[in-house]
Amino acid sequence: MILIKRVITYGTFDLLHYGHVNLLKRAKQYGDYLIVGLSTDEFNAKQKHKKAYFNYEKRKELLEAIRYVDQVIPEKSWDQKIDDMHKYKIDTFVIGDDWKGKFDFLKKEGVQVVYLPRTPEISTTQIKSDLQIKQEDD
Ligand code: C2G
């Protein structure tokens, strides 16, 4: 019997860039099937206090085009992760090390928790501020 190892990660993935792709590529290496819990526009606004440039549908479309991503589900709240681990039969939870330690509680659900080093020098915030400066220069 072939065991399908199932991996999950979560994020906003706005202005998709190579740091995101690098995370997804490494996350996929932990299994055979990668699910992304994509922060909804409402979750971004109400809980993460950030407004994505691209709305949920567009961010989902971009993620689904990435070879490493097998399924995209909505991330609507901070509290859905435990249920998600069981609902989607997750073996490994992966996220960038800016979250180091924050999701260790998932180990109690029998899930391996992995924090991966972030890709240096790139972030959605950096892109936005660089573009801001560029516009002022133009
Ligand atoms: N990331 C990375 N390197 C970067 C930028 C981002 O590895 N240069 C990773 C982040 O660590 C995260 C993923 O890419 O694992 C998505 O980044 P964000 O959209 O910024 O994720 P965040 O807003 O931190 O949402 O419940 C968890 C949250 O939804 C995580």
3D structure, described in words:
The chain has 138 residues and is of the alpha/beta class. The protein contains five helices and five strands. The chain has helices spanning 18-28, 41-48, 56-64, 81-87, 124-137, and strands at residues 6-11, 33-39, 71-75, 92-96, 112-116. Strands 3-2-1-4-5 form a five-stranded parallel β-sheet. The mean pLDDT is 96. It binds [cytidine-5'-phosphate] glycerylphosphoric acid ester.
What topology emerges from the helices and strands here?
Blueprint lengths: L5 E6 L6 H11 L4 E7 L1 H8 L7 H9 L6 E5 L5 H7 L4 E5 L15 E5 L7 H14 L1
Parallel strand pairs: 1-2, 1-4, 2-3, 4-5
The structure holds [cytidine-5'-phosphate] glycerylphosphoric acid ester.
Terminus-to-terminus distance: 61 Å
Please outline the major beta sheet. Answer: 5 strands, parallel
Q: What is the N-to-C succession of helices and strands?
A: EHEHHEHEEH
Strand order of the largest sheet: 3-2-1-4-5
In a few lines, what is going on in this structure?
The chain has 5 helices and 5 strands; from the N terminus they run E-H-E-H-H-E-H-E-E-H. With 138 residues, the chain is of the alpha/beta class.
Write a concise keyword list for the protein shown above.
binds [cytidine-5'-phosphate] glycerylphosphoric acid ester; 36% helix; 5 helices; 138 residues
